[in-house]
Model the fold of this input.
Amino acid sequence: MWSSFAAGAPVHARVSPVPRVTTRATRVTRAWSKPSSGAPPKQRRTRGALPSLGGQERSGRIGQSSIAAAATDEPQNKPTLSPAKQMAHKPHEFTLAGLTTTSRSDRYDLLIVGCGPAGLSAADRASEKGLRVALVDPKPLNVWRNNYGVWVDEFEALGLGDCFSNVWPKARVVLDDDDPNGIQLDRAYGQVDRIKLKNKLLERCVARGVQFGAFVVDTVTHEENGSVVVLKGLGNTPDSDSESDSNDVTTVHAKLVLDATGHVRKIVEFERDFTPGYQAAFGIVCETEEPHGFPLDEMLFMDWRDGHLDAKFKAQNNDHPTFLYAMPFSANRIFFEETSLVERPGLQFDDLKLKLTQRLAARGITVKSVQEEEYCLIPMGGVLPTLPQRALGVGGTAGMVHPSTGFMVAKTLLSVRGLVDTLALEITAGAGDEQINATAVSTAVWRNVWPDDALRMRTFMCFGMETLMELDIKGTRQFFETFFKMSQDIWGGFLSWRVQPIGLVKLGGVLFFKFSNYMRFNFVWSALPFMVSFIKNFASAGNTFDSQKWGGMALQKNDQNGRASNVPGQGPIPRPDSAGPKKTQKNPCQTPITSSPLDFTALVGGDVDKPRVASALRPDKEWIEFQQRKVFKDQAPLVEVLPRLRSGDFVDAVVVGAGPAGLAVAAEMASRGITVGLIAPDTPFVNNYGVWLEEFDELGLRDCLLREYDDALVWFNDSDPAGGIGLGRPYGQVCRRRLREELLKRCADAGVKYLPGMVDSVEHHEDGAPSVLKGTLAEYDEDSKQSGAGGGSVGASEFTEFTVSASIVVCSTGHNRDMLRYNEGPPPGWQTAYGVEVRIPGHPFEVNKAVFMDFRQSDPELEGEFEIPGADGIWRVPSFLYVLPVDKDTVFVEETCLVSRVQVPFDELKRRLYRRLKRMGLAVEKGNIIEEEASWIPLGGTPPVSPQRTLAYGAAAGLVHPASGYSIVNSLRRAPRFADAVVAGLKKGGPTEASARGWDVLWGDEPRRQVGFYQFGMELLMSLRIEQMRNFFTTFFSLPKELSAGFLSNDLSSSKLIVFALTCFIQGNWELRALLLTHLASAGAGARLGKAYAHPVLKLIEGTKEDLSSKKNAVEALIRKTPPQEPNFSSFAKDAKTAEQQGMMPGYQGKDWWAVGSVDMTMDDGPVERKRDDDDDDSPGGGVGVGSDALASVANKTVEVLGLVPVVSGNNTNAPSAATLASKTPETSMAYWSDGSAALVVTSAVRRTGLRHDELYGSERRKFAQNNALLNLAFGPKAVPSYLTGEMPGDQGWDPLAMGAQRDIIKLRERELIHGRWAMLAVVGVLVPETTARLGVFGSPGQHWWDTSLTFIAGELPQLTYLGETIPWGVVWLPIIHLPLFLIAELLRTGKYKLPRFENLDRMYPGGKLFDPLGIGANVTKNDLAVLKTIEIQHSRLAMIATFVFLVEGIGWGAGPLDFLP
Done:
């Protein structure tokens, strides 16, 4: 692809007309029998149409390839959102002779498939030998895509010394950072001029009468004297890149067929699975800002240094090393390539891009422009084709890639000579020109291509390749250091296939002799699993070398996904229709590789694929208004369906809002005999609703489904099957029009009246008097009736005020909170989603299956708190893909954030969605987008005050599932019961009783407990990182379906929810258990859950239930523009501004996320003012997002997005951090939120003690004798010993025996601390069994904590009893499990047993997952940790005293600590 520096002028193509023999295209079954003399004609069907691809081989240097385009029947996976940068080339300008008519009596001597270097050089050689030659290729005159690097002496020996575009007299190999000079290779290296080489070969072929055809091969049928090849025309013009299938076929007869299609492997047969290693490389031709610094007379062959890599990539590079390959052309123009020598399977291109970016940054090289990109994937090693066979092969398809290096082109061009010379000799030696034994000829040719010595050489090289793949970076460096320090004849001969088998054995011996002891051991260890297969094939010149360790009896090196380790969030995401682990894997080289998801240009200076600060995004308010004001012509206006409610009318009940919940509850109340009015803007249903099929079926609304899906799929991890994991639960997409029509029909049948308008105020009067609603009315005339739902606007001819009276007012305004009173408490979490319905022909999603959750990452994660300087525990808020296929060419895809403390902006979700689709190879074109959707759902938060005179229903009443966002089914399901209660209350006791009963249905004791549990779950989910989120849902969907489905459907009672939680705890792993426990113990979520379950008791104790009857004579007024609490959108705007002021990127959270927005917004730039006139929104969905005005004060903030580390600049450098904000009002923040970690629970506990660091440490700390006059008088200044300086936790200046003065005080402290920890365990170990025995739960009254015995039974293991109860296998697990674990932990802590992961531990406070599994000390501040240490030592001292007392009680009186209780 480096044509911009290749010599020779690119010219236009001209192809002469091609005579055709047109037949009906037939594809026959392939017969896999070996060729034999006299056998009947054998037909073979190709795998799809056969692309005529010549020379996919790249060679010269250690392998490169971008496979030329293959015209196949299979859809090509070509990500088009990040196109490769390739230089535009016009085709070569030659007039080519077309194919002529052939028959069984008039055949071509040789038909070559593929016009790459291998195919074209074979045509050149064969025509020189006087053979009649035809060559077919879809684009025979296109410029070769691949670049070829070769040793100059090899090409000169082939007579091609004039086909170089650049030559370097020497090369260099650099091994590690300690020796930047490396090893100089005094062997000239050259870059092949692709255009000049192809022009030279084409010119000779045209002059010698070679005939060409622009075809792909459809089928090949082998007969006794030749082969019949059916070619499929593409219908392309020579000077066009476009191709279109043609139904016409051309039949060609040839004596022999030569497959030169490169790595596509379409014609030659393989009798065993092809399992090569892969060389992967990503390269760029670029111009640099400053001189790049590479010497112009030298190319860089290998640079294995990795000191520039970050910790993540360095760990990957240890097992999967890569090197830099560079060819300088001028001071500022150079080719860089990051190359993986060989892996099985190949490394991901995105990883190579990122590593190249880090390498260039470390060298101080700034890329000014990228002129061309190159993607190389070369199969190396593996089995050869079946030898012999009727189809001939050359180049990549015949296994001519050097299995240890990737070199190929020189070997191929040399092999072509022997192949063609043998073929010409065999054909001319036949009895007649058309009567040859094709099988005998092909056997002779294959024997010449792969003689025994060549097979042995290849076996040796395959053995070397497998050994190299087993070496880590250290072993790889030592191998190449030894290899290139040998004489040039040896290493050069090996790279050029010139060393014969006996020489290869000597080479192996010399290498082993020169290796260091370390390398000898590692080399033998790496080679041993393949040694038996190597010896067998090397001795017999066989073709059965086994690339599996120990013949397949060992686990593979790579992970279960079958790919080398790559960074999460990079590389392709497997499509649902891709081959799974149990299917035959697709040949990765079958289609051209021209791009990868990650845009390299963006990495070196662009902003593609990178988040932006919130103030730079489109305001979410605009997105929400866009969603609310959609136009749907198929939804009839309400005024055309429902009778009119007029200003001044009185009805029994008014429902405010005409969404699904409002229509459903209005119809239910009206059907119970009361008059009902509906007031709302005349708008359509705009949101897409997904539901579980059985739920809508139970509601009798299955006819309202637009689509039904047999199953819903989930993906939790990148390692999940490509086809997903089925939940075994049918799913459906609601038809908005049908559902609206059904609900409106119910309203019309029940007599519901409608008034189009917006309610501005509600006044509730004394009991018995109707409530008064006032607002703005949109009056319709006949000419404006077409407006409304379908038209997207009210279409009013005149606006007037209206007044309506009603006994009951039901607010069903969605997420608007303006007409209701809500309790004080934490702000909500936010679920946001951006989706599109789009035409993607042949998309990979099964049309009968929905995708419920795909948690495979769209972006890489920031892992680890301290990996990136300044990133103080920052992580990306998880999001997932949700998919509803429409048909085979249309799909609805949506990126969803399940819940976040601060709303993830729609533009950020849009970016994630498009990046995810790009990584799946799916291109979205703007013209193919049918509909966009922006979904915005507040989750959780405070419930409405209940009871209150204004009733609520739907989302306004908190019926949104706080942990999932589901609401529509819940709202439709509960409408009948709610209507029953309200109507019965109205008939029995009037409006007050109706309100009380309605609120009891919505927020009675049982619903409050349920919602409290769901909100507990929501707050847990809000705190989770991606791996924790995956862990949770893996456990969740493995629960019994009754529990998981019941949780999502709001079907579980409060007691069943406890069972659900216990089952999660039991089935989850220890990490999930720790998260659940710490979240439950938190001062925020855990306390609220406890209050929800204890609500009936708290009502009795506190007497806080509001008695509406006491307000009979009161007047309550609710005004929409001055609501009783902060609107949802205002809460979000405040949180978004606070987050950005704290330097947080949109879509990210930090460990102090719970503090954002929970404090007073008064800061240096003043408080956030609520401007009701500006914020007013009359649309029915309610609420808006943050606009640009809300973020104007921080618009000048810059963020370093390359490292994804927020950096605040300008005047905002003093913006308060989350921790600073929390410290201003610690109880407020802590009371509202918990981040699901032990650290926050502990932080809350520390702050509640009131202890401060300066009170416990230093010279001014609290001391034992500080205020004791008697001790000060007795000891004077020595009351506090001088060696107690206040540096150690718990130092109160008290050491009456002066023990610290005589011995090492640090050792004494260590012993005190260890004894204290054991004592604390002992206190628990005494009190718990004493309590269980006293209560008869475990043991019986009168037994004590020391009652332990062994019971010996003949022929059985002794039985361990405790408190009279038998401990199963106690004698076994105590000495075999507990004691060894204790011993290992102590050995690791003290450093007597060393493991790399546990080296240099603090003996007293080792920390880490082994010694601090709950992470209590991992994420707290330094001062809080110091307070924790003091608290621990104080408890330790108390526990040691208590343990001593327990011992005295037991030994002296035989009594336990609880025996003194009555």
Observations:
- Residues 66 and 1131 are 53 Å apart (CA to CA).
- The two ends are 91 Å apart (CA to CA).
